[in-house]
Amino acid sequence: MYTVSAQVNDISLLKVPLTPTPEFTLNIPSILSTLSCDPLIKLIYVCSPGNPTGALIPKSQLQEILEHPTWNGIVVLDEAYIDFAPDGSSLAEWVTEWPNLVVMQTLSKAFGLAGIRLGAAFAAPPVARLLNNLKAPYNVSSPASAIACQGLGKEGLAVMRKNRDKILMQRERLLCDLLKVKGIGRFRGGTASNFLLVEILNRNGQPDNDTALAVYERLAEDKGVVVRFRGKEHGCHGCLRITVGTEEEVTRFLEAIGKAIQEVQGTSSEKIPSDAVEEKKETQANGVIA
Questions:
Q1: pLDDT digits 0-9 by tens, 254-268
Q2: N or C: fewer beta carbons within 10 Å in the chain?
Q3: What is the CATH number of domain 165-285?
């Protein structure tokens, strides 16, 4: 969407790909070099946790960009999925220290209020004044404001946290049980969001875009289960992005994914033994494809 917004506004765009190994972090040398060579760059967009990577960007990396000695621009940090990350992960408080930082959050994810299309930007006062001068002359609608205030109140926060904890529990379940499914490879990226990025293997045990796309289509068309094919994204070859749902939805997904892979590969969907799962975890920790 950053690209779409830039193109709609006829703004030139430069991309510096993430470093996929080990966990989709920023390529700091390349970013700093790009900023030094092109003073016309005014905005940097960084997503943390990333989509579809689910990985948090290390705070130290953001600080290196904010402290660039010659570049004079704004770093925009998109924290749409931050409520699913460990406590203390947000950098919203940093805007009091770094006047060139803007942190964006939303009520569309953990709060489940996507229908009101409402988010917030945390920024230093001079930047906030600029944003207010640029925005449309219409404020947030009264119904959206009322719903947002309710969601951010004591009872609303309690509901959000209760639902979030359920999602985190099912995320841990997927991290464990997906490794038991034949045809599932490594988890890629991180585990700081409400989705996981996982490799789909072909019959030769290698991550494969054709296999992943076929499994995605089989799940959607025959099983009524929708995931996201992300094999064309940088560093995501052969990957599906799996959103964490309710306990019932995760159960249905786990049953469907094994059958879909079996049907695509023409192999048995029998679960991997527990000892093999432990070995698979160890190889993933070492960055080796199981």
A1: 999 999 999 999 865
A2: N
A3: 3.90.1150.10
